[in-house]
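[job 0412] stage=complex_fold ligand=guanine status=START
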Amino acid sequence: MPATILDGTKIAQEIRVEIAAEVRDLAAEGLRPGLAVVLVGHNPASEIYVRGKVKACEEIGISSEKLDPPESVTTAELLSLVEHLNRRDDIDGILVQLPLPPQVDAKKVLLTVDPAKDVDGFHPMNVGFLSTQRPGLVPCTPAGVMEILKRSNIPIVGREAVVVGRSDIVGKPAAMLLLNANATVTVCHSRTHDLPTVCRRADILIAAIGRAGMITREFVKQGATVVDVGMNTITDPREFQRFFAGNAKREEAFRKKGSTLIGDVHPEVADIAGAITPVPGGVGPLTIAMLMFNTVKAAKMRRGSNVREPSRR
Ligand code: GUN
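[job 0412] stage=complex_fold status=DONE, emitting structure tokens
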């Protein structure tokens, strides 16, 4: 039986409707959450992401502001920009889009963001809150992974979860969230021995490596839930054939565009998984929805209001 497709676009839309209702409630109290997005230079991928973030704010009723210092910006200039945003009372969330240019000390910049406004959840104080199960701001993509699992009624308690990838942005916080939700968690990385065998233990497999189609069927236990966090662009026709031969819809799109988006999971895994997130249309849309959630959460936390968790309404 082919896997159930976990529709991230639909789940993200549900969350966005809930957040928009909450923003209307806040407006009735005279409060409008505000997000500042800092985009340095002209990285094309970052520009697309930031456009999506600003558009989502407009649709939901959050005020947003884009700041775009030049590629040549110094660490000191960025620090002073962030410090100014920290002081502004109308700004509840600050997001510094990564990657930053090489001359900038990115760690220093992220450390300067007020933890109460750190809607990316990257500040060490929020990392510490997450690891000690205190209220705080949780990184958007891993938070989105948890929303997909919870809203799709995938059991987590006592299950074996394997996270492939140990980045600060996705792998590590995803592992921590799964652990906090009482899964038994294994974190794998490039030095892990016999990765397929370790992955086959998983009831829930999270792929966050950044390598096109690396997770093939030998990595997956029959019936497992597979969450694909990868976003890889392929342009090589031979590589395209290796993954998508016989998929007429993809072939036509690839011919027109010259590229296609693929996750870290090989399409053949859909034959063996119990449930799987597609790429595109899986985890991606949740990242923006959870950013909106974090911005509203930050606005309420700074003003001492109660925060409702998205899955417990
Ligand atoms: N670049 C790629 N993903 C992200 C993210 O989640 N947050 C930020 N700030 N930059 C990114």
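Residues 183 and 234 are 34 Å apart (CA to CA).
[job 0412] exit 0
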